[in-house]
Design goal:
This protein is of the alpha+beta class. The protein is built from eight helices and eleven strands. It has an eight-stranded mixed beta sheet with strand order 2-3-1-5-4-9-10-11. The protein has a three-stranded antiparallel beta sheet with strand order 6-7-8, with helices on one face. The chain is flat and about 90 Å long. The chain starts with a helix and ends with a helix.
Length: 358
Amino acid sequence: MNFDESLNRVLSRYDELQDLVAKHPKPGSQDHTAMLKEYSDLTPVVQAIEKRRRAQREMADLAELIADPQSDAEMRSLAEDEFHELKARMPELEQQLKILLLPKDEADARNAILEVRAGTGGDEAALFAADLLRMYQRYAELHGWRFEMLDASENEIGGYKEASAQISGPGVFARLKFESGAHRVQRVPVTESGGRIHTSAATVAVLPEAEEVDVHIEEKDLRVDTYRSQGAGGQHVNTTDSAVRITHLPTGVVVQCQDEKSQHKNRAKAMKVLRSRLYEVQRQQQIDERAATRKSQVGSGDRSERIRTYNFPQGRVTDHRINLTLYKLDRVLTGEALDELIDPLIAADQAEKLAELQ
């Protein structure tokens, strides 16, 4: 099937869905909602097809004008200029269409669970983990997303050994999923008296938030432990056993939450994280089997395993997957320039997927 035949099939399906949605006997039903979603997903594709075909029709009309010996010389010259402009735009219009036609990651539209952990580097790694958490919180605020802390293990100097948060909003996972991996920092730690630059690391995991229907968890497969919430320096957040640790026995996955004063709320939040971790395992297995996307590895937090380096003395950030360096460290850490790293990562992923389809 050639490219134009594929586009005709999209247009035919779009028209069919339009009719099915309008005449559906049970508006609001699961089946009707699924059709509406498919129709909505196809709308930008159809708009891009129509834009390309408009350009093709205009080129055909201009070609006729250029070939007509009766046409005015000045008009022919203008038509030739316009024809060449449209011809130059056609590869871009086709590329946009091919990207829109790529298989969708159904997790892209989901909210995300963000997990940040200190890796190699002791207290300095924990401080850097706190910097990363603040960066994502500010980035979420700039996008109008909701950022809610789920759990945090703080050290005595304001760093995080580990922390997790839920980020809610349109397209959260699609934009944040490439942040998973080991992030390395090079700077003079606040604890360093000699002014020497140290290298430390923190790991980031971004998981698509799972619904109860995505992952079935048996109660018998869970071990639930409760304990008293701890603050920095071992101070009690409260005096009741409200913190919850849940172990999923079949997989050994352990999650915990102590952010709320209510044991019930902490358990609910911990279950949300557990579902998302198990869902991500299933999702990643499917991705690996289809070889549809590049596999993201969080790694161990070792200095040598990194996706990005934040170099404070030189004020630069380098993403090693796409060999991109920005001398905007401050603005990246405030979330303002983070899109300048995320957008090229998304483009590189799209290019890789397009190459796989060739």
